[in-house]
Each structure stands twice: as C-alpha cells, then as structure tokens.
Design a protein that fits this description.
The chain is α+β, with helices and mostly antiparallel strands and 510 residues long. Among the domains are: 160 residues, D-Amino Acid Oxidase, Chain A, domain 2 (2-Layer Sandwich), CATH 3.30.9.10; 109 residues, Orthogonal Bundle (Helicase, Ruva Protein, domain 3), CATH 1.10.8. Helices cover 31% and strands 25% of the residues. The strands form three sheets. Strands 3, 4, 5, 6, 11, 12, 13, 14, 15 and 16 form a ten-stranded mixed sheet that branches. Strands 1, 2, 7, 8, 9, 10, 17 and 18 form an eight-stranded mixed sheet that branches. A hairpin with a 7-residue loop joins strand 17 and strand 18. Helix 1 packs across helix 7 and helix 8 crosses helix 9. The chain is globular. It comes from Pseudomonas fluvialis. Pfam families: DAO, DAO_C. This is Glycerol-3-phosphate dehydrogenase. Belongs to the FAD-dependent glycerol-3-phosphate dehydrogenase family. Its cofactor is FAD.
C-alpha cells in the first residue's frame, strides 16, 4: 500500500518522535501497513544511543543468569530474521568465552550455552562447542580452556538509516534536526508543534503519537503533561577502540570479577572494539562521555586476559551512550532488564500516546509490531504485519557478499577492492545507485581520504539525510577512525560550501 500524504499541517495517522532504532522501526512498519506517517528527530538519525552500542545482534547470553528467558528467546529468533532482512549489515560472528573456573564453573557455562543453542531457532549459525586453546593464543598462558558460540555483528547506525529509508519509500515523511516543542490533545487528535534547526516551525495533527525519544522519553512526557515519567532509568555504556589486539575475525567475551562481561570485537579491519560498561547516568544524554573510571575498568579486564599489555595511550577512539531502560528497581545497572516496555495512555475517545521504554537493537522489529498492535484499535485502517520477511533497503535480492564484490569489480575494473568491499558492507545492492552514471574514478570527484569520495558524500546527503561531517564520519561510516584532522576539516568545508550553494539556489528559485 502506498499512502498519499497530506501536506504539513493536515492530519497524519501516526506521528513518531525519535529517530533511533525503535522510532524508525515503528515508522517503517506503520508506513508499510498503509498508514500516513511522520517521524521527527531532534538531531541526526541514530545520533545517540542507537550508534553507541556494542554493534551486536544477539540473544544476550548473560541475560540467562537473570532468568530473562522470554527476552532471550525472542532475540534469538530475531537474529535469524535480521540475517535475512539486512544481509549486508548483519553477519555471523564467532565468540570465544575463556573459562575462568573461579568465576563460573564449566558445568554452568555448558548449561547456559545448551539453552542458548535451543531456546530459539538457529538455521544459519553454528552450535556452541568446547575449545582447548593453542599455545599461541593471545590470552594469558594460564587460560587453556574456552567455549565457542555464535551471534551476529551489525552496523548499528546503518541499520537505523535502512529502516528510515524503508519508511520513506513506503510514504513516510522523515524530518531530521526537527524537534517537537509542544503537543496537546484536541477533538480526538494530537496537535503538534515542530521546530527546525533554522528556527522555522511547522504544525501538524495526528490520530496517534509515539514517544520513542529514548533517553529523552521522560522529558517528552513532562512536556506533554503526561504521567509515567519516572519509569525510565538511564544507564551509561562506554566503549574504547584500540589497534587490533589479535589476528582473526572472531570476538572474545571476557568474564570479570564483578560478574559482568566485556566484549572484544573485530572492528573496521584494523581495530578492536572493547565494551561495554554499566553505570547510572544523571544529566543531559547528549553530553555523555566516557569517564576515567570506565577506561580503567575496561583496560583492567583486558590486561587480566591478554598477554600483550594494553595501555591508555593506545586508545584511538571512545564513545558512550545512554540506555533508556525501564526501571524495574534492580539493585545494579547491570541487572536492569534490557527488555522493552510499552506504555499506552489515553482515555476513550482521546488520541492515544504510546511511550517506548527500554529495548535493544536485536528486538526492535518485534517492538514495532507490539507497538502497532496496541495502537490498532485507534487506527482500524491499519494493514497486517509484514516486516518479518521483507528485506531492508540494500538487502533486496541479495546475491551474497562475495558475489556482489565480484560483480562490482567486473563492472568497474578501476574500483579498488577495499572500496568495493566497504561499499558492499555499507550499501548492499544499493551500491548500484551510488555508482549510477559513473564510468571512471575521476567521476567520483574529490577524494577526501581513506576512500571517501565526493560522489559518496553527495549520495549520503541526498539519499541518507547526512548534513554534517560527523554524520558521515561516525554514523554513515566509521571513516573518522582513518581520516586525518586536515582531511576531516576539508570535508566540513565542502559540506558547508555545498549547503551554502543549495541555500542560494533555493533563494533564487523562490
């Protein structure tokens, strides 16, 4: 179904506030059911929590210790779904769990992995197994035993963008850098006021409203003069990026003395991603930064496991995010459930407000289905669920990663293998759109460094809502790890000139 949208100021079926994974997932699902949808995001897509994850699609092995069997079962099922929906963004990843007998006995780990193998469907991923580590293992000499299991890696920010594209291609209006500054109910509708970065404002009406503002969800409820703002518990998670710590494309899951675990993941070919932490957070979610305590914590866990010492001086990048979890009154941040909670508010005859608390990347699609099921009585024209078997943009008619790289190299013989590989990972089959009309390397335009060309920058601005250098360097790609300060400055200058040119053109046309 392709809905015909009213002009701004008219009535939408659904307005969604928040451009993280939950917001875009709900918007895409709703648009595909024939609803007229608008989504607004105060910053860039995935600007906060949804780009600050451990980049995993996983069942959550450690959640079994907290008896969260329903969440693990659902997440394990979604691994298989997302491998099919976004094969360019989601890929299998082997995890090695070193055995430390004083932390968890082997029988407990075996039992947990048995449950992990059998709680949910597992068609594409290998079963867990016991390992005896070789003498050349990068781990400490006293760590001789381990267990191996499979989960999945994901490009988190690009998964958000792909869902936003899916929403737009089904008729949704997606407005970035546009914040909601007010909303009130009147005559069975929500009346919303939105404000763009340039100060311009727009009004719209909607039959239903979704608060998917993540760490700002409670503040939004206060703005709307709605209850339940205290249900949110903010938990900070931080990561560090180091030069690659070991060869191979497997990950490690390290047990710590406090009962927590830390992932060490292969990252962007040359690096290792290490995280995450769990600590209570107070303050502006947009200002979250890694602390010295968190850095020391992560380094200490690494140095208890790896032979080669790791120091603070080796850190090349770090990032932090705030997880907006539903407050289940757990004693520690680590024990707070990562499950989602949906709160529906509105008396009979009133326009409903659905607020999203918690959730994780892995289960965003199921969360969206549950949200629309709750809203269905207020939106009787809504079509049936459809997302389980529909590919996201870039994953349509997927030929296989190696095959697509080979097709690119055969069609564009001048294209470097490393660039074909990165573009395949990032855009999937949409890479053909990126390269439409390109016949040689000169047509790619200015080279900013590390394989980032003007053609790709323009594509990201025109097709993927990118506006600022940080959008491109850290969310649409991770090339901020590779471009020098002067190269990044050149990109910022180009984007400023591009925007100024478009503003002048718009003024002339008006």
């Amino acid at each position: 179904m392709q809905p015909v949208h009213p002009p701004l100021g008219e009535v939408y079926d659904l307005a969604v506030i928040g451009g993280g994974i939950n917001g875009v997932g709900i918007a895409a699902d709703a648009a595909g059911r024939g609803l007229r949808v608008l989504l607004c995001e105060q910053d860039d897509l995935a600007a906060h929590t949804s780009s600050a994850s451990s980049k995993l699609i996983h069942g959550g092995l450690r959640y079994l210790e907290h008896y969260q069997f329903r969440l693990v079962r659902e997440a394990l099922g979604e691994r298989e779904v997302l491998l099919g929906k976004a094969p360019h963004l989601v890929r299998p990843l082997r995890f090695i769990l070193p055995h430390r007998a004083h932390l968890r006995p082997a029988w407990l780990i075996r039992a947990g992995l048995f449950l992990y193998d059998h709680l949910g469907p597992r068609q594409h991923l290998a079963a867990s197994r016991y390992l005896r580590l070789a003498a050349d293992s990068p781990l400490q000499a006293d760590i001789r035993q381990a267990f191996e299991y499979a989960d999945c890696w994901v490009d988190d920010a690009r998964l958000v963008v792909a869902n936003a594209q899916a929403a737009r291609e089904r008729g949704a209006h997606v407005h970035c850098r546009t914040r909601c500054i007010g909303a009130r109910r009147s005559k069975g509708l929500w009346h919303l006021q939105l404000e763009r970065r340039d100060g311009s404002r727009l009004s719209l009406r909607a039959r239903a409203l979704v608060n998917a503002a993540g760490p700002w969800a409670a503040q939004l409820l206060q703005l709307f003069k709605q209850p339940d703002g205290r249900a949110l518990r903010l938990v900070q998670g931080s990561h560090i990026v180091l030069p690659r710590l070991y060869p191979g494309e497997h990950a490690y899951i390290l047990q710590n003395e406090d009962g927590r675990i830390v992932f060490v993941l292969p990252f962007q070919e040359h690096f290792s991603l290490v995280g995450t932490t769990d600590r209570e957070y107070q303050g502006d979610p947009a200002q979250v930064r890694i602390s010295d305590v968190e850095i020391d914590y992560l380094l200490a866990v690494l140095n208890r496991h790896f032979r080669q010492p790791v120091s603070r001086a080796q850190i090349v990048h770090s990032f932090s995010g705030v997880r907006p979890l539903y407050d289940d009154h757990s004693a520690s941040p680590s024990a707070v459930s990562r499950d989602y909670t949906l709160a529906l508010a509105g008396n009979p005859g009133e326009a409903p407000l659905l607020s999203v608390f918690g959730g994780k990347l892995t289960t965003y699609r199921r969360l969206a289905e549950a949200a629309l099921q709750l809203l269905a009585p207020s939106l009787p024209q809504m079509g049936p669920a459809w997302t389980a078997n529909a590919a996201l943009p870039g994953g349509e008619q997927w030929p296989g990663h190696a095959t697509l790289v080979e097709q690119l190299r055969r069609r564009f013989v001048w294209l470097p293998a490393s660039l074909a590989q990165r573009w395949t990972d990032s855009y999937g089959v949409r890479v053909w759109r990126l390269l439409q009309g390109i016949h040689d390397s000169q047509a790619l335009g200015r080279h900013f460094g590390a394989g980032l060309y003007q053609r790709e920058v323009d594509y990201l601005c025109d097709e993927e809502w990118a506006q600022q250098a940080e959008d491109i360097l850290w969310r649409r790609s991770k090339l901020g790890l590779l471009l020098s300060a002067s190269e990044q400055a050149a990109l910022r200058d180009y984007l400023a000139q591009r925007q100024a040119s478009r503003t002048r053109l718009s003024t002339v046309l008006d």
